[in-house]
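Hey,
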Amino acid sequence: MARSTKTGSRIRFTKPGGISHSRTICRSLSAVYEFCRDPRNLPLVVKNPVAVERLEPNHFVILRDGEKDDARIDLRITSETTGQTISWKSEWKNSSHQGRIDFIPAPADEGTEVTVVIHERGDGGRISAALDRLRQHCLAEAIADTLRRMKALLEAGEIATTDGQAVGEPQKSRKKK
């Protein structure tokens, strides 16, 4: 298990195809749960733009902006315990995911610990297994980044980025000696 004490973030690879990632968010459990309960908030925190369309109360379609239907992710919320956990199943191309988000009050009343657990199933071939391991690392990185961005948005009201900032050589001092 990898742990970053500075950010309160943990990534763990469980059994093959499984990823677990946790982050503590300094907001009430009810506020964090309500934000996560609505998948239409996903475009606010994922790095790559997506569009979310609600088909039924617990059935959503997620499309990456500017991409065709082959980037269509079909997501269904399969069960939930209000204020504690949300489980889902999603289908995309040749793979399916089952996931769960757990919400636990952080120790010393310091917010909410959010844990995302995802299990991915590919098509089962030998080459596919190697690609699945690579995809698993990419998925872990995407989950970590999404939770980091959600933490920033819920705690500070914005997501700080360095996009659009000038780059270049350090400025020379203007002081004359």
